[in-house]
Amino acid sequence: MSVPLPAAAPVLLCAGEALIDMVPRQTPEGQAFLPLPGGAVFNTAIAAARLGVRTQFWYGLSSDMFGQQLRAALDAAGADASLCPPIDRPSTLAFVTLVEGQARYLFLDENTAGRLLTPADLPDLPDEVGMLFFGGISLVNEPVGSAMEALAARTAGDGRGRLIMLDPNIRPGFIRDEVAYRARLFRLIALSHVVKLSDEDLFWLTGPGEIATQAERIRAMGPRLVLITLGAKGARGFAEGIDIAVPGEAVTVADTVGAGDTFNAAFLCALAERGRAAPQALADLSTELLAEALGFAVKAAAISVTRVGANPPWRHEVIGER
Q1: What secondary structure does DSSP assign to 129-159, as a single string?
Q2: Mean predicted lDDT score pLDDT of the chain
Q3: Long-range contacts for 212-219 (Cβ within 8 Å, ≥24 apart)?
Q4: Which long-range contacts (CB under 8 A, 24 or more apart) does 303-307 make?
Q5: CB–CB of 4/54 below 8 Å?
Q6: Residue 238: C-alpha distances to residues 9, 56, 212 (Å)
Q7: Can you tell me the mean pLDDT for 53-59?
Q8: Of 101-105, 201-205, 258-262, which one has max mean pLDDT?
Q9: What is the percent of the chain with per-residue pLDDT over 70, rounded to a whole number?
Q10: Whole-prediction pTM
Q11: Do residues 135 and 168 lie in contact, with contact meaning Cβ atoms separated by under 8 Å?
Q12: Residues near 220 by beta carbon (within 8 Å), at least 6 away in sequence
């Protein structure tokens, strides 16, 4: 069971893809695929709820057997999917292969419950929602990409002071119109207060260079915080006058599926715990507080990679509560 954060902590809304990861398994008859709940934004919602953050989720959840599996997983973690009415279209499937522990994907996403969301489907956000998280493949294709961008733009302009975090979690093999996708990412970066990128994603967006230089290019587009994850080497955080590195933790890696998603959830959790989960609260963020938040996120992600598949830790596993 997760241990909730203080009641005053804002609710997190994770908006973006939920899908079924078809994970390879060897059987006596040959290779088979095990259907497991997944998707970058879905995994972030699961991780946040397990860490005690009050979490809501929004995407197109199918009424099919896989959609029911996704909804059940959200419920088991304590995440609220009430903004997601059942949709009579199929769920997205992602067939996974592992190459040296790194996940590679084949997506079956045409005409799915999530892919066909439009800006007309945007939910009315409950007043208690104070943080929003966007990212993943839900930003790539139409019309769902426009729906996600419209929700971010509406949130940024509504005067409610809600925190927006973005992790594009770029999958180059999924992109069909790179020009349009890059343009959308740059617009979303400008709307966001916190942007997290892996080092690979950073260089895909900006081209080669020094991490600090390229991260500052991203921060110059509008975000107050830019976070760069470095795999086993940990993470770096960039804010006004701050460039801080937090080392990784030495663990035995099973695979890296969901590690970045866990990092995202844990970072937002750490901000919420410290009363910093609002745009104005990031303006004078100290080096020490940013280091604490990054350290918590790195620790949670390190636990995640010791497990096969996307299986984020519960709060007590990260901080020792019982």
Answers
A1: EEEEEEEGGGGTSTTHHHHHHHHHHHHHTSS
A2: 93
A3: 212/236, 212/238, 212/243, 218/189, 219/195
A4: 303/251, 303/262, 304/47, 304/258, 304/259, 304/262, 305/251, 305/253, 305/254, 305/255, 305/256, 305/259, 306/251, 306/252, 306/253, 306/254, 307/254
A5: yes
A6: 24, 28, 8
A7: 97
A8: 201-205
A9: 97
A10: 0.94
A11: yes
A12: none
Q: Residue 137 and residue 115: Cα distance in Å, rounded?
A: 10
pLDDT digits (tens, 9 = 90+) for 96-110: 777 776 667 788 999
Could you tell me if 297 and 245 are in contact, meaning their C-beta atoms sit under 8 angstroms apart? Answer: no
**What distance, in Å, lies between the first and last C-alpha atoms of the chain?**
9
pLDDT digits (tens, 9 = 90+) for 280-298: 999 889 999 999 999 999 9
AA letter at 111:
N
Could you tell me how many residues make up the chain?
322
Residue 322 has pLDDT above 50, yes or no: no
Q: How far is Cα 50 from Cα 44, in angstroms, rounded to an integer?
A: 10
What is the Cα–Cα distance from 227 to 160, expressed in whole angstroms? 24
